[in-house]
Amino acid sequence: MSGEEEENAAELKIGDEFLKAKCLMNCEVAIILHHKYEQLQQTSDDPMNQVSQVFEKSLQYVKRFSRYKNPDAVRQVREILSRYQLAEFELCVLGNLCPETVEEAIAMVPSIKTRGRAHDDEAIEKMLNDLSLIKKFE
Amino acid sequence: MFFHIVLERNMQLHPRHFGRNLREHIISKLMKDVEGTCSGRHGFVVAITSVENIGKGLIRDGTGFVTFPVKYQCVVFRPFKGEILEAVVSMVNKMGFFAEAGPVQIFVSNHLIPDDMEFQSGDMPNYTTSDGSVKIQKDSEVRLKIIGTRVDATEIDKNISQSRPKWDPAGSHPSRFFCIGTIKDDFLGVINDPTTI
C-alpha cells in the first residue's frame, strides 16, 4: 500500500482518519472487552467459543498491559492527560507506557516536542507527576 | 494502538430471515463476518461495540437477496510504523525474537537487539547481557518500536483487492498484519528490569 511509506507515528503521521479517531488506552480497552465478554457469558454456556482469536489475544494483552485497573483511575488518567494539548494518539501512548521522566516521555512520543505546541519540559514534568499520583492512590 | 471507530458494511440477507428477528439476525451475521478480520486500512477488528444504524434494504436484481447498509462502532487494533508499544516475547532464536502485541506479531531481528546482548541456545533460548543482568526469553515483556508494517492479503487474489468496490473500501478482505521492530533505541528493551533504563 503506497500510503504506508509515509506513515510515521513518531511524527504523528498516522493518516487523517486515525488522527481524528478516538484512540483507546489499554486500560480502557480492557473495560470494554471485559464488558462484552460478560455479556456473552450471560447468553451462552461457552463464551470462549463465541469470540475470535483476535478478541482473545487482545483481551489477554490489555489485561496484562493495563497500568490502571480501577475504572475511576482510568477516567482520571484521561481527564488529566486531556488538559495538555495532546493528540488522541499521543495521549494514549503516554497513558499506556507511563514514562517516568521528561526525557523518557519525549523518547516515547517525539511528536510532543516537534509540533510547535510549546510543550516545555516543565509542563511535561507536571503531567507526569499528576499521572504518577493517580497510580499511588489507585 | 487501539481505536474506537465507525465502519460501514453492506450485509446481504436471504429473504428467509425476514420477520421479527431481522435486526438481530443482521447484527449477529455482522459480528460473525467482521469480528476477528483484518484489513490494511483499519487493522484488526477486535470487537463490535454497537450498531449505529441499519439502513433500508435494497433488493438485488435477479437474486432476491436484500442488501442492508449497516453502520457500526468497533474497537480496532492498528499498528503504526514509528509506534512504541509493549509486547510479550513468544519465540526466541538466533535470528532474533518474535513478540506479540494483542493480535499482531512483531519480529525483532538480532541486528536490532543491543550489541551487548548475545544469543544463548538451550531449552529456553534467550538473549542475555554479558553480566547476565538482563535476559530476553519466551514470556518476557519488552518495550519495542515498530519500524515497519506489512499487510498480507491471504486467500484473496491481490489483483482483485487492488480495485476495491466502493461499498467495501479495504473492508474485510482476509489479511494479516506483520511488523518488524527494534529494541535498540533509548528506553526500549525488557520491562520491569531496573537495570535496562
TrEMBL record, chain A:
Keywords: Nucleus. Its main location: nucleus. SMART domains: RPOL4c. The keyword Nucleus applies. Gene3D superfamilies: 1.20.1250.40. GO terms for molecular function: nucleotide binding. It comes from the Eukaryota. The keyword tRNA processing does not apply. GO terms for biological process: DNA-templated transcription initiation. Belongs to the eukaryotic RPB4 RNA polymerase subunit family. This is RNA polymerase Rpb4/RPC9 core domain-containing protein. It comes from Citrus unshiu (Satsuma mandarin). The lineage of its organism: Eukaryota, Viridiplantae, Streptophyta, Embryophyta, Tracheophyta.
Automatic annotation (TrEMBL), chain B:
It comes from the Eukaryota. Keywords: DNA-directed RNA polymerase, Transcription. This is Dna-directed rna polymerase ii subunit rpb7. The lineage of its organism: Eukaryota, Viridiplantae, Streptophyta, Embryophyta, Tracheophyta.
